[in-house]
Design brief:
The chain has about 425 residues and is α/β, with parallel strands linked by helices. The protein has 2 domains: about 170 residues, Lyase, Ornithine Decarboxylase, Chain A, domain 1 (Beta Barrel), CATH 2.40.37.10; about 180 residues, Alpha-Beta Barrel (TIM Barrel), CATH 3.20.20. The protein has 13 helices and 22 strands. It starts with a strand and ends in a 6-residue tail after the last helix. The protein binds ligand LLP.
Length: about 425
């Protein structure tokens, strides 16, 4: 029997009741590499990218993978080879994309707190665009560019004041958020930027939030952006590209975000209707390219019955999978091996890690049939898991495997103790 676990995600499935990623058994991968272990499907990442590519067929568009979602080098390399640009937010991310072989000209640099050193390095590397997020940043970038005898290509990130209807921590396009330049001040800011000799205006951008599951916020933000482009160009400043950011959600727990191609079909219809269909378009998707392409395999260490709750204590924790602790996020949790009596024998468990905090939980009230030594897969773990992992409780960072059909590539080895203390010094 073989059925996909998540609709639209055929590459992570049970075969003879054993969970597989593409043609590789997760049980075998865990036996070889240990747990906790992140396993990604290459085909699933490329399928997700293909949905955007279909959506933009025949258009002048660039997909800049928002690498914060999963910044492992091999994942970056995969997207670079597939023709993507990258959205970065730090000097470290810049070094990573360069190390992965990306073309600097296809890199855009977002973020509210770029340092002078980061700006200088990005200018030297020749990145495609700085997505400037404040009036103060404009002056600093102008100074840094002039000191290097360069002109920095810029786009101003507009805060369109649109509610993306998502978790408050990952909503970014509302007035109360720290991101971007207020809609009302945008024209003025463009006029200031256009007058500075160290800057060259090339575009405009926005990003309204993450895990967005409705199309209306995108349509609203697009209208507000296009109004601005009209006003800015009427003031004599040319806008070469329009960047609509990322944010498209994935299915964690029955969520039904629009498919990328369907969403862009609608958005492009609006662009066409308003006469912007032939512009150079950019987007910055992160989660929707990698989120449902990965699982985290973990071993059950102890089953601990309690008066109020049963705990299933596993060897992955909030340092590996921080999203439940940070956002009360839901990730599906399923056994690597299914058996006929699972449903009958199942009990309710809180699935928790070994970290010494009550916030260290991965799933609450999950119906599972488990014993110590069993292995589980935490689903939808391709985005914002390994990239947000830490060494908290002096736990090593997990290993990562990228599966390509029957082939499994170890793309990150588990941290050794030496890795953890590198750079530290005794008194
Ligand atoms: N562009 C910018 C400027 C961003 O800040 C982000 C994400 C993206 C693009 C990509 O958004 P995506 O397509 O992945 O939704 N750690 C949180 C998500 C934080 C998102 C931060 N910005 C989580 O685990 O839900």
């Amino acid at each position: 029997m073989s059925a996909p676990l998540l609709p639209g995600q055929p590459h992570i499935h049970y075969a003879q009741d054993q969970l597989q990623v593409e043609g590789c058994s997760l049980h075998d991968l865990a036996a070889t590499h240990g747990t906790p272990l992140f396993v990604y499907s290459k085909a699933s990442m490329l399928d997700a990218l293909a949905a955007y590519q279909r959506g933009f067929a025949g258009r002048n568009a660039r997909i800049c993978y928002a690498m914060k979602a999963n910044s492992s080098l091999a994942v970056l390399q995969l997207f670079a080879r597939a023709g993507c640009g990258f959205d970065i937010v730090s000097g470290g991310e810049l070094e990573r994309v360069l190390a992965a072989g990306a073309d600097a000209a296809k890199v855009i640099f977002s973020g509210v707190g770029k340092t002078r050193a980061e700006m200088a390095r990005a200018l030297q590397a020749g990145i495609g665009c700085f997505n400037v997020e404040s009036e103060a940043e404009i002056d600093v970038l102008n100074e840094v560019a002039l000191s290097l005898g360069k002109r920095a290509p810029i786009s101003i990130r507009v805060n369109p004041n649109v509610d993306p209807k998502t978790h408050p921590y990952i909503s970014t396009g509302l007035k109360g958020n720290k991101f971007g330049v207020a809609h009302e001040r945008t024209l003025l800011t463009y006029q200031r930027a256009a007058a500075l000799p160290g800057l060259q205006v090339v575009g405009i951008d926005c990003h309204i939030g993450s895990q967005i599951t409705e199309e209306t916020p995108y349509l609203d933000a697009m209208d507000r952006m296009l109004d601005l482009v009209e006003a800015i160009e009427a003031a004599g400043i040319a806008i070469r590209h329009i960047d609509f950011g990322g944010g498209l959600g994935i299915n964690y727990n029955g969520d039904t975000p629009p498919a990328a191609d369907a969403l862009w079909h609608k958005l492009l219809a609006k662009l066409d209707a308003r006469g912007f269909g032939q512009r150079h378009l950019m987007i910055e998707p992160g989660r929707s390219l990698v989120g449902n392409a990965g699982v985290c395999v973990t071993e059950v260490l102890y089953v601990k019955p309690g008066e109020q709750k049963n705990f299933c204590i596993v060897d992955a924790a909030m340092n590996d999978l921080p999203r439940p602790a940070m956002y009360q996020a839901f990730h599906g949790i399923v056994p690597l091996r299914r058996s006929a009596d699972d449903e009958q024998e199942a009990q309710l468990f809180d699935v928790v890690g070994p970290v010494c905090e009550s916030g260290d939980w991965l799933g609450r009230d999950r119906s599972l049939h488990v014993r110590a030594g069993d292995k589980l897969a935490v689903l939808s773990a391709g985005a914002y898991c390994m990239s947000m992992a830490s060494h908290y409780n002096s736990r090593p960072k997990a290993a990562e495997v990228l599966v390509d059909g029957e082939q499994a590539h170890l793309i990150r080895q588990r941290d050794s103790f030496a890795d953890q203390i590198r750079g530290e010094k005794l008194l």
